[in-house]
Amino acid sequence: MSSLANATDTCLSTISLAKLIRADPEIDKELLAACVKVGFFYLDCNDYESNRIVKEVEGLFQATRKTYDLPQDAKDDWIVDKDHGEDLPVCGYKRSGVSNGSVVGKKDGFEGIMVFEHALKTASKEERLAAPGPLAEQRELLSASIHDFHTVGLAILSSLSRALGLPDGQGFEHFHRLDEKCTTALGLLKYRKYTPTDEQVGHIAHTDAGSLSFVFSNIGGLQVLMPGSEQWSFIAPRHGCAIVNVGDSLQFLAGGCLRSSLHRVVPHADQEREEKYTVVYLMRPESDAMLKDPQGNEWRSVDWCNKKFAVFRADLAEMKLGSFLTGREGYTGMVTPKEIAVEMAQVM
């Protein structure tokens, strides 16, 4: 298999958020088909409540850029490298280059800030938000955005529950109640501009630990391994649309009928000209929700997330042990620098 077999943008289903919120039966069918077949789809937010979510995402991009313009030592004050336990902070930061990246012999190429939903909701409103300055100043935007993403996530989970005919009270949404403790987070990421000599590149192939991920990016680079074809394909960002994907937790809750697809971030031709920014909402079940993996092992939701994060932090040899990272035994989905150069030349 060529590691970068298809450098063109793949076609995904597009789901209207406005119709989804109205519980349109046809949308229920389309959404289920997308989550069974590929596990990825576009969610068109342009037609929802006067573009409210689109405007919130634009505000988040602005706050993200300002935050990453801070001096490195100011960002380092917020470094968090621990399990997602009961004492999650409002905000945590990781440097670029602390884990393995998507290219053989290179480290990851992104900085990351996570704003944790439950910690944000329970933080004292009488005190300044415990976050870097540009984010602390945007508490209202962060709270509104996370609330809206959670609402949309519940609508997706309810739609899938209806389409699968789950009994009342047993739908996926009941594992994601708004006020329960969880590791759900809003991620604000910055990927470095790409040069062939850079030792920090991309994001290693993986499936997501949680239930649903909502991704907004300014340029391309996200790839999905298309089911049944062994082809890696770029997913192009679209203005006003989230790229949504199913994660492990939802696949487990659904007994394996929904697909948690393998994906990664590799350099795109656009990344030679500008930095890549990503806003991602990572919706995860309540911390105490029980999950059963394909091998029949039972996990608390928080324990599954922590196992996944431990693999991300591990060295390459440990990453290859088992299937926790990618769902495939010993597989990392890495590419070589030569393959990157060839494929980037083809899409320019």
From TrEMBL:
Tagged with keyword Oxidoreductase: yes
One example of a Gene Ontology biological process annotation: small molecule biosynthetic process
Molecular function via GO: metal ion binding; oxidoreductase activity
Protein name: 2OG-Fe(II) oxygenase-like protein 4
Keywords: Iron, Metal-binding, Oxidoreductase
Membrane-spanning segments: none
Limits of the Fe2OG dioxygenase domain: 184-285
InterPro entries in alphabetical order: DIOX_N (IPR026992), IPNS-like_FE2OG_OXY (IPR044861), IPNS-like_sf (IPR027443), Iron_ascorbate_oxido_reductase (IPR050231), Oxoglu/Fe-dep_dioxygenase_dom (IPR005123)
Residue runs in coiled coils: none
Record-stated family: Belongs to the iron/ascorbate-dependent oxidoreductase family.
